[in-house]
Predict the structure.
Amino acid sequence: MSYAHRMKVCYILNGQKTEVQAEEGHTLLDTALIAKIPAPYSCMEGSCGSCEAVIEEGRTSEDQENTQIVRTCQALPKSEFVVVNYDKGLQKKICI
Ligand code: FES
């Protein structure tokens, strides 16, 4: 694994912001858990949706045209800075 290309990810969870370095090949959820951020998850396979969050800034491997919501257990950061908001992901689910 190459450690030459590192990215920063800012996580928003329960109103708190935490910025960490992400290593290439680690999903957004992997990076959060390594940093001891208590991000929500269950299946780790992209099927349950419990790890969903809103990408407020930056690009990921899971970006789609009409939504900023990604399953963080599948999404890899694809820009040097990514902002992942778990609070908005949860709000979206509650409001639907
Ligand atoms: S943990 Fe189930 S979809 Fe990500």
Observations:
- The helical segments are 28-34, 86-95.
- Residues 41-44, 46-51, 71, 73 surround FE2/S2 (inorganic) cluster (CB under 6 Å).
- The CA atoms of residues 28 and 72 lie 5 Å apart.
- Residues 86-95 form the longest helix (10 residues).
